[in-house]
Write a structure and sequence with these properties.
By secondary structure, the protein is of the alpha+beta class. It has six helices and four strands, in the order ααααββααββ. A hairpin with a 2-residue loop joins β1 and β2.
Length: 173
């Protein structure tokens, strides 16, 4: 249980190092988008990559080549989904949630908060974290597609065009 053979330990070290280098190389080649803030699909790919790397490291039944094929497949699928979401009409809405306004002009939007399972306390925390002391100073709090809460004060609102795609409205890029 504590130790079986040096050959198994060396396999973990050698194959693990090679798999790690391959993962870093593939992620660098596919660009920054692969490592951006996570939406639902990105989270699935990230968890799957971790699982594949662990399997390559610890299972002698999986060869390095099989593991790198799995890593490459997952990353290429993520690239394909990213490409589709930026170039195909309705592609983005298929894999990412649209932003939702949770507070407008200092008033909570209860239905949006219920639908997105966000509490008033979480919205207040986001407002405080942004350095704002009163809800009356807030033009909008938006739950972004990556799960973060964006706070826009009245003084920052401008023409409000940045809020145009919240609540599922599609604004042309």
């Amino acid at each position: 249980m504590w130790f079986d053979a040096w050959s198994q330990v060396m396999r973990v070290v050698v194959v693990g190092a090679a798999a790690y280098v391959w993962l870093v190389l593939v992620l660098r080649l596919t660009g920054k988008r692969t490592l951006a803030k996570l939406n639902a699909f990105d989270l699935v790919v990230t968890v799957a990559l971790g699982s594949v790397l662990a399997t390559i490291l610890l299972s002698a039944d999986v060869s390095w080549l099989e593991g790198t094929a799995a890593i490459t497949t997952l990353v290429l699928l993520q690239v394909a989904v990213s490409w589709t979401s930026t170039r195909v009409a309705h592609g983005r809405s298929a894999v990412t949630a649209s932003p939702s306004t949770l507070l407008r002009d200092g008033r909570f939007l209860d239905e949006a908060m219920r639908r997105n399972r966000v509490t008033a306390s979480e919205v207040r925390q986001a407002v405080r974290s942004s350095g704002v002391g009163g809800l009356d100073q807030v033009a909008a709090v938006v739950l972004e597609s990556d799960g973060t809460l964006s706070v826009v004060t009245h003084s920052q609102l401008g023409d409000g065009s940045a809020l145009g795609d919240a609540d599922g409205r599609r604004i042309p890029d």
